[in-house]
């Protein structure tokens, strides 16, 4: 079994997330800075230049993205 490390998604709660109004609903989304970091890490991954720390950071951000997708879907479904 391979153990994968990740930066905890909760580490971005204070600085990396925001609420944005979309069609009369407020949905979770990344700040401009966190989105830029995600884009940068994805690009570095494509170029096979990620360090282990960056890989852990990318995994954590992607997990947060999955959480937002689920929460936003629930918000939309309940409205």
Write out key terms for the chains shown:
79 residues, alpha+beta, two-stranded antiparallel ribbon, 2 strands, 53% helix, elongated
Q: How is this structure best described in words?
A:
The chain has 79 residues and is of the alpha+beta class. It has one domain. The chain is 53% helix and 15% strand. It is built from 2 helices and 2 strands; from the N terminus they run ββαα. A two-stranded antiparallel sheet has the order 1-2. A hairpin with a 2-residue loop joins β1 and β2. The protein is elongated and about 40 Å long. It starts with 16 loop residues before the first strand and ends with a helix. The relative contact order is 0.21. The mean pLDDT is 92.
Q: Report the mean per-residue pLDDT as an integer.
A: 92
Order of helices and strands: EEHH
Helical content stands at 40-55%
Please work out how many helical segments DSSP would assign. 2
Please report the total strand number as a whole number: 2
Morphology: elongated
Give the domain tally. Answer: 1
Biggest sheet, spatial arrangement of strands: 1-2
Q: Whole-number radius of gyration? A: 14 Å
| End-to-end CA span | 42 Å
What structural category arises from helix and sheet content? alpha+beta
The largest sheet, given as strand count, sense and whether it forms a barrel, is: 2 strands, antiparallel
């Amino acid at each position: 079994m391979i153990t994968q490390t990740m930066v905890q998604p909760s580490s971005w709660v204070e600085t990396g997330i925001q609420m944005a109004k979309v069609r009369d609903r407020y949905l979770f989304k990344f700040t401009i800075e966190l989105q830029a970091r995600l884009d940068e890490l994805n690009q570095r991954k494509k170029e096979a230049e990620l360090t282990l720390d960056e890989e852990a950071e990318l995994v954590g951000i992607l997990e947060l993205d999955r959480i937002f997708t689920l929460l936003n879907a629930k918000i939309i479904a309940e409205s």
